[in-house]
Amino acid sequence: MITLSVDAMGGDEGLTVTAPAVARFLQNQADVRLIMVGDSAQIQAALAKENVPMERVEIVHASEVVGMDESPQHALKNKKDSSMRVAIQQVKEGKAQAAVSAGNTGALMATARFVLKTLAGIERPAIAKFMPAAKGHQTLVLDLGANVDCTPEQLLQFAVMGGQLVRALQPENANPKIGLLNIGTEDIKGTETVKQTFTLLRESNLNFIGNVEANTIFDTEADVIVADGFTGNVVLKTVEGTIRFAGGMIKQEFTRNVFTKLSALAALPVLKSFKRRLDPRRYNGAIFLGLHGVVVKSHGGTDKIGFMYALEEAYHEAQADSIAKIEQGIAAQLNKSE
Amino acid sequence: MITLSVDAMGGDEGLTVTAPAVARFLQNQADVRLIMVGDSAQIQAALAKENVPMERVEIVHASEVVGMDESPQHALKNKKDSSMRVAIQQVKEGKAQAAVSAGNTGALMATARFVLKTLAGIERPAIAKFMPAAKGHQTLVLDLGANVDCTPEQLLQFAVMGGQLVRALQPENANPKIGLLNIGTEDIKGTETVKQTFTLLRESNLNFIGNVEANTIFDTEADVIVADGFTGNVVLKTVEGTIRFAGGMIKQEFTRNVFTKLSALAALPVLKSFKRRLDPRRYNGAIFLGLHGVVVKSHGGTDKIGFMYALEEAYHEAQADSIAKIEQGIAAQLNKSE
């Protein structure tokens, strides 16, 4: 049985999204228990409206909610009984194997670091996400914004953690391929930091396959792509903007006149399937890596489908016992270089 | 009459691409003359196969060609009679208003800097490109890879040059909106360099509209987006990769079975129009900004259509007398801060 703790109040819509998502998730997964953290009366009321197997739900009261624009410092100092913090506390106390929140990223990361502490050998936790890819292959990209200025050593740590997470989730993949996001494939490309990281990765015992250019992120053979949080975040958002742009253009073309509208009718099943495959909700759920516990961050503005995918992500990680494997990886691959 | 000089030998395919592109371009534009630079016998032979108004073509012989993988240093030192260098020389000597080359970016930039020299007040030239955007609006993004590590002062210089280029090309747009590529809209976001650049831009007399996130590059109101060359290049390549990925997925969905193939037939005109609008060849032609002369870089692997668009880009810039306007802008907007 897997137990996840859920920040029931987090995100733009709070329980309006988390309650139906939780209901659906519990229907899908039989071997899971949830600890719903937040205002207990509100949670009770919201769950009563859904078809929820209450024998697998525990409600833990928390009297505060971290605002979506609240600063990490303010949340840490003044919201000691926030739903976010108490949800993470459940992981710390061993009552849950993973916590999920749609709360604000900065506060969630700060709280997770404060409560769970960073793994030995890791200077800074990172945010990671699997990107959709052609041929069913998925590539984990990190960091996606936790650390804007990174040292080469930190980027190496990201590579180690990313590789171990892939190993944990894909046991058949014993030696994940690590790529370094760069603006060319030659060794000499990139900023000073990126060049030094290239050297560190080449000297490591990771399966380093060299530089990966951003135009190949959807068809690279790399299992992990390492970048600083500024660049990683830019990649993620550029993908999001480009897909929205291309989708809008398809729509524009199909609604241009009566003939194109007729052809859209004919193409409807295909267009729907296309839209479904690129649906950002299916890729919701970013993983905080480098902590003594699993924390998954849902997009703050997602709906119940998106939040359900974030719960799925946490479930798979908890099942894979990823933290233990990451700790082993750090011991094997980083300590020797210290 | 506008005169452009063309590195006839540059690019993966050399004259196979440049000769037919030149023929088509001359047919489209009546008020243009071309100086074709390279092996004169080969140029003569290649142009003879095309329908070219030879009275508007001058051939200037150059005995060498810079290789696509040749280092900038090697090209500068050993290829003093290269088609690339002699083409740029035409601009230096006032014989042409702009040079176009599909040769390798590093060598082209180094040669352009060496021959044309950098404008006073500009430390480093940048590479700029207009991105397609919704509603017919176009956004100039720079730097796209000339300078991987940038200071805040250099980023401010890019903003000034970009703004002046937009003013030159769009005379009705007297005060172009400048955005700073960042990972959030709040002032406090970004790397140290980006934060300092934010302050410089806010204190400048540019029309600075604040941070722009990468998910809005296709629908931002910004006329210019400023980034360091590493980030800018990553954005450009992420867009390229994402469009290819989405296009491949549409194709996959439409060829899934006999029904989807039939609907593809019905949707064919729409799909073609969609494909045409996102055709990267239509956006070929990156502008080198910050030199005493216009140099446009075509993608090395493009075809005749793509190379023709690079010629069009150079033509519009030469028409707009962009260099003079950029020099004025530097005098008005940068010198005061020195």
From TrEMBL, chains A, B:
GO CC term, one of those recorded:
cytoplasm
Q: Name one Pfam family in it.
A: FA_synthesis
According to its UniProt entry, one GO biological process term is: fatty acid biosynthetic process
Q: In which pathway does it act?
A: Lipid metabolism; phospholipid metabolism
Q: Which reaction does it catalyse?
A: a fatty acyl-[ACP] + phosphate = an acyl phosphate + holo-[ACP]
Q: Where in the cell is it found?
A: Cytoplasm
Keywords, in A-Z order: Acyltransferase, Cytoplasm, Lipid biosynthesis, Lipid metabolism, Phospholipid biosynthesis, Phospholipid metabolism, Transferase
Q: GO molecular function, one example?
A: phosphate:acyl-[acyl carrier protein] acyltransferase activity
Highest taxon listed in the record's lineage: Bacteria
> Which E.C. number(s) belong to this protein?
2.3.1.274
Q: Which family does it belong to?
A: Belongs to the PlsX family.
Its biological purpose is as follows: Catalyzes the reversible formation of acyl-phosphate (acyl-PO(4)) from acyl-[acyl-carrier-protein] (acyl-ACP). This enzyme utilizes acyl-ACP as fatty acyl donor, but not acyl-CoA.
Among PANTHER family, the record links this protein to: FATTY ACID/PHOSPHOLIPID SYNTHESIS PROTEIN PLSX (PTHR30100), PHOSPHATE ACYLTRANSFERASE (PTHR30100:SF1)
Q: Which NCBIfam families match?
A: plsX
Q: How does it assemble?
A: Homodimer. Probably interacts with PlsY.
Q: What is this protein called?
A: Phosphate acyltransferase
Q: In which organism is this protein found?
A: Kingella negevensis
